[in-house]
Amino acid sequence: MTTTTTNEVYIVDCIRTPIGRGYSNGSLHSIQPIDLLSYTLDQLMKRNPNVDRGLVEDVICGVVSPLREQGANIARFAALKAGLPINVPGVQLNRMCGSGQQAIHFGSQAIRSGDMDIVIGCGVEMMSIVPMGSDWQLDNPKFVEGFNFKVLHQGVSSEMIAEKYNLTRDEIDKFSGRSHELADNATKKGYFKDQIIPVTLQDGKVVDKDEGIRVPVDYKKMSTLKTPFKPNGKISAANASQISDGASAVLLVSGRLVKKLGLKPRARIVTCTVVGSDPEYMLLGPIPATIKALEKSGLTKDQIDLYEINEAFASVVLGWKKELNIDLDKINPNGGAIAHGHPLGATGCILMTKMVNELERSNKKYALQTMCIGFGQATATIIENCSYKPISKL
């Protein structure tokens, strides 16, 4: 058990909803974003009765399409709807796909600075209700002119990465199938049970599993799918992240208050970082982000027991793996966004929730999470398992 230190930041708890397909026939489509987020916040606090709701000093929420049903500072409205007292503020942010992870970072930084003691970092995205790109104007020539780089679609960038690292279509598809198979295995063995909060729909149906996982994997069919970003390319719908609905929340507490309230922390935030990267090869940001996080932490890549890298596209993960020479067995051991989906603003907190739970389940010490971000950015976080117990070697 890690000894708590006053100026350290700890994850006391983390939860997520099941992830639904982000279409009108998806399992969560009937729920409004504010209701899914408020339910998640309420469940987080109910799981932690020793933390008075009035002690929460901010609710920071990642939302990638922050308009209409997901606008108007959904963090504040969802917090109020969840029964948090009126003194608890809220703010939403958009760092594109890194938004949920950035919410954790901002909360961690507020605590580490001494300004706050308890913050909830969270995220929500209902892509079936507010479609991806609703807040963009990339089809407006005046919006995209004047840059010294090409403004490309992420899918085009993912094809460029596949070429850069000489990735074959078969290699990419096999990694994608692996994601589904690992996620299915984790579901069947109950690895996600304690992290997923079941959602009851109006008709009484209970949703408690990620909807996008497809097994057995039909590799033959996968190889025949069209490649929309490049004729005879390598990137298809089967080896890219799914359009999804979901929410997640992480309870961050200072070492001082962990000790005062007698809380049992689950993980310690070791370091947080964000980088900018090439806007055309926009999805390679996790490479410098990973390097920077390791340098700031003083850890080596071999000391990291588990990596969660967002599967925006399989080529992103495989390019990162080749560049840094990361052991495949350490990468996304319970599958990733290709299988369970990528509800944009929520995914950063979802991956963190998965990572904390897997560290505990496997009794591993350190984990690193990184996410590519549109137009050349990436976030990275390293955490330490507070319940880690070294296995003595004979």
TrEMBL record:
Family matches, as InterPro entries: Thiolase, Thiolase-like, Thiolase_C, Thiolase_CS, Thiolase_N
Pfam families: Thiolase_C (PF02803), Thiolase_N (PF00108)
GO molecular function, one term: acyltransferase activity, transferring groups other than amino-acyl groups
Domain (Thiolase C-terminal): residue spans on this chain: 263-384
Residues annotated as catalytic: C97, H342, C372
PROSITE patterns in the record: THIOLASE_2 (PS00737)
SUPFAM superfamilies: Thiolase-like
Residues covered by the Thiolase N-terminal domain: 9-254
Keyword terms, alphabetized: Acyltransferase, Transferase
Keyword Acyltransferase: yes
Taxonomy, superkingdom: Eukaryota
Family from the record: Belongs to the thiolase-like superfamily. Thiolase family.
Protein name (record): Acetyl-CoA C-acyltransferase
Annotated source species: Dictyostelium discoideum (Social amoeba)
